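Reply to dn_fold:

You asked what the input looked like. This is it:
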Amino acid sequence: MSGNGTTPPRPYDRRRGLTAGATGLAVTLALGLSSLPGGHAAAAQDPAAGGVSSAAAVTEDQAGTVQAATDPQGPEQSGFPSAFGYSLTHPTAAPAGANDWSCRPDAAHPEPVVLVHGTFENRYANWAALAPRLKRAGYCVYALNYGAPEAAPLKATGDIVASAGQLASFVDRVRAATGAAKVDLVGHSQGGLMPRYYIDRLGGAAEVDKLVALTPPNHGTTLQGMGLMARAIPGADVLLGVSCTSCDQQIVGSEFLTDLNSGERTAPGVDYTVITTVHDQVVTPFASSYLVPAANVSNRTVQTYCPADTSDHVDISYDPVATRLVLNALDPARGEHPAC
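and this is what came back:
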């Protein structure tokens, strides 16, 4: 997809400095590690290596979703390139501040926050800045990987319906651990779209207080737009050509989107916030991320608050204006105007 008509796509490698060699590494890990004998157990990281802060005992829950009993945490990052690079060799890492299963919500932040990554991403690459920011703000923060084998760094490529089931199981685990009746969800791209299926079809309406979605493809993208997303993340172009069920489901006019958007349903008890950028090269026009206006729907664009903001689809979860809008959506009573 060629952009929104005003801003042409910017080459990812030149802008972010990811080397071409990362492509081969990503493909090797994504397509190779998951098929190795004992690959899941072998992927657990040594806490003394690579900056991982705790050991990972890998278990499998009743839904068949592999989860770490004690999730290894990677370091806080300031941008997507460095976080993605780290996640290539630490595919089970959780972002700093996330998945403290002893955390108990307080009166000021009663809902735990569950972070949901996007297509071709993972929980660490997407949330290595926002997770610790939310933790410092006083939230209990959790992040899952979904839609791919545990050892594969490029995730969220599987069937969205199945991924929504994984999210439902993870939310149940968070609610059981924290004692919270409901959670707040913050998602990027597919991670902002997929929770709508969980809310609408899998009982999530009774378990979710807020959904905050960064650049979600609520009304789909074109195959060209999905191709731009794949080229932005080393190795994803190979997966797109091999097997990416969720990619087909996010294309404009797909059976999945047609069904999900029939009647433009939003759950009355859930508050929805959509946060977009005019420089989105994947979901175009950017306003197609928006949900139909309603009393419980807020549609936001970062350039409304900071016209010079250059964040795009891939890096919006690291953008300070978008971060402020997320915090405002989670706690409107303590909201602040974003600073440029």
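The CA atoms of residues 34 and 151 lie 5 Å apart.
Hope that clears it up.
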